[in-house]
Amino acid sequence: MVKVSVIMPVYNSERFIAMAIDSILSQTYTNFEFIIIDDCSTDNTPKILENYKDPRIRIVKNVKNLGLAESLNFGISLSNGEFIARMDADDISLPGRFEAQVKFMQKHTEVGVLGTQFSRIDENGKIIDTQKLPIKSEDIFCIFPHCCPIAHPVAMVRREILEKIQYRSDLLCAQDYELWGRLLYITKFANLPDVFLYYRVHNEQISTAKKNLQYSIASEVLYNFLIKLGVTEFVKKKVDILFWQNIQSDISEVDSAFCEIHSLNEKYFKKKVLPPDRVIEIFITYVFRVSKIMFVKNIILSNFLRENHSRYRAFAMILKRAINKLSLRRLVHRENSMKIVVKLMGGLGNQMFQYAYGFALAKRKNRNLSLDISFFNQKNAATPRVFELDQLCISQKNFGQKLFLAKIPKIGRKIETLLNYFEGYFQSEKYFSDYKDEIINEFQFKEKLQAPEGNSVAIHIRRGDYAEFANIHLVCTPFYYENAVAYIQSKVESPIFYVFSDDIEWCKQNVKVPEPCHYIDNLNKPSSHDMQLMSLCKHNIISNSTYSWWAAWLNQNPDKIIVAPDRWFADSRETDIYTDNMVRLSTTEEV
Questions:
Q1: In this predicted model, what pLDDT tens digit does every residue of 201-233 receive, in sequence order?
Q2: Rounded CA gap, 72 and 91, in Å?
Q3: Nearest to 38 by CA among 53, 23, 50, 26
Q4: How far apart are CA 349 and CA 355, in angstroms?
Q5: What is the pTM of this model?
Q6: Pick from 290, 162, 293: which is nearest to 221 by CA?
Q7: Exposure b/e, 76-105, CB count within 10 A at least 16 = b
Q8: Domain spanning 4-207: CATH 3.90.550.10
Q9: Alpha-carbon span 318 to 298, nearest angstrom
Q10: Where are the domains of the chain?
Q11: Do residues 6 and 88 make contact, with C-beta atoms less than 8 angstroms apart?
Q12: Phi and psi dihedrals of 36, rounded to 5?
């Protein structure tokens, strides 16, 4: 009697079908029938099938195109084997697959669905990567909300199960995921630890062509999965309100919803069906998928979680632990995996640090860079700022935005990192030194100015907001600038000084700069104008400002001297901002 019935529906599969068939006929286990259902192919698939004379092959031609699910159900109705083995027309089964699966199924009679590990290959058969799936039934159950736990083309299922529970023929894709969601509650699942399938990735396969539809069906499957788990409509409704809409709901009703989730969690744990907190993690993952990340915003900002309710605090901690899991990390990355988003803040100098950080990070990770410019929409800011990188020849001009605002730092920062969203000032060359030449090219000025003549020395004196907020910003003293001028005079022959400042009159009255000296007053010019002029000078005396830092960094004189204040911040001794070629001088006369 035949032990295994291999079911393989095919439709216009001429490119790869011969390799798929040959891989089945090459199995070390030979007691099988091979049912190939031609779903009205219009290419050379029928001719290729006619070339095979192996008696184990049964070719069945549909009268009309039925689709994958209905063809599978039809094939199962024709089968005689104890086990149904799936196969797709574009994949390759390794020779020992059936032998290993039959041996396992005969030994473990409680297992109704068995898969294996698999490697993905490209159209040319080159291995892309190897996918590792959980082996034990309880782990497969828990990972189901995260991903499909059994690879369909390598699945082996007991025929008696599929005779009672069939594929849904109304679904155009994700039929396997939907079927597994129903079978998980009536039989045990398992995966063999070894690779027995090469899964081919190409543009013509269903999983590539119908990704959005697959996502929609998966959300429906997950909802039904939760209902069977015991999560009622009442719970779903209340948590929808809490997570998605973030409106003031009756606290007693929301409390009841959380109680029900925790009761289910205790029930499954006490029965030793699932490890601790797995019901909560499964539920979190469901909301994560169907709301496409936005629920995180609301779980963190929610007033309910800020109440003194231990249940909600525990829920937040379980969320944090769930995020640390690789499977959920992959789920989050799928939303934003192809780009790095960096928030731009501050003036031109800070924007350049943030851009350089994102540019280098995107290069290292082979991602695209997007710039979040929402900061510049703020009103009533202490120091109004505008987007200024458009004055430079930057190549990355994609604009993104932050997906949510995190008010619980430990959880929020972790999620932001997973989402490739970065907010900060990143004031150090160390972030991008390995891409120095490319950064210099990115920061070419659109306006082209002439370099000052002679041994030009740019002096940048920052006043303005620094003087107004002296408790935050350290204001460099006249002592520092005069000391820096003296240092330059000791090193440079016949220096010509150019003073750049947002308060030229104060400079003339308070800082003694020897002749020849020129005071540059370009307050009505774009920020990049003076930065470019300073970068064209041969030497730089900078303030503790990222604006003059970049002017000195972009200075292409190989013999340049850069003098910088020995302290950058009023409340910190941070030194990462300094480059190795900077001469640091004291800002106070007492030191």
A1: 876 655 544 556 766 677 677 667 766 666 555
A2: 17
A3: 50
A4: 10
A5: 0.49
A6: 290
A7: beebebbbbbbbbbbbbbbeebbebbbebb
A8: yes
A9: 16
A10: 4-207, 230-330, 338-442, 455-585
A11: no
A12: -105, 120
